[in-house]
Design a protein that fits this description.
Helices cover 12% and strands 31% of the residues. The protein has helices at 9-15, 18-25, and strands at 43-47, 53-56, 60-61, 69-70, 79-84, 91-96, 102-107, 117-120, 125-129. Strands 3-4-8-7-6-5 form a six-stranded antiparallel beta sheet. Strands 2-1-9 form a three-stranded antiparallel beta sheet, with no helix packed on it. The longest helix is centred in the first third of the chain and has 8 residues, at 18-25. The protein binds zinc ion.
């Protein structure tokens, strides 16, 4: 994609809170259940770093895993995946296609129609009501 956003570390640090920076730019993970949650109204979840629309309210579901969970991104091209073998685990990491913000991980235990669980850090997301 040609419209990638690249900023220096200092620019991200200035724009983001410490926790947003730690999670999105340093592949951190927020503590399970630490995010206060999002409104239930119709709307779009956007990247906290660049504002790209990432997930829709109607693909969000209650997985009880301690993080916001979705079964599909808003569009296939808005997120990218990579292998993450940190912490001795083999996981699929998911990040914003536009600015490479780390969002969370994908697990194969989600509901249909995808069977996937996009397990996303709440601090990596903003919510825009429709
Ligand atoms: Zn982004």
């Amino acid at each position: 994609m040609s419209d990638k956003i690249t900023k220096t570390d200092a620019e991200w640090r200035e724009q983001l809170t410490d926790e947003q920076y730690r999670v999105t730019r340093q592949h951190g993970t927020e503590r399970a259940g630490s995010h206060p949650g999002f409104p239930k109204e119709a709307g779009t979840f956007t990247c906290v770093c660049c504002g790209a629309p990432l997930f829709e309210q109607d693909t969000k579901y209650e997985s009880h895993c301690g993080w916001p969970s979705f079964y599909a991104p808003k569009a296939k091209e808005v997120v990218e995946m990579s292998r993450d073998e940190s912490h001795g685990m083999q996981r699929i990491e998911v990040h914003c296609a536009k600015c490479e913000a780390h969002l969370g991980h994908i697990f194969p235990d989600g509901p249909q129609p995808t069977g996937l669980r996009y397990c996303i850090n709440g601090v990596a997301l903003d919510f825009q009501p429709d």
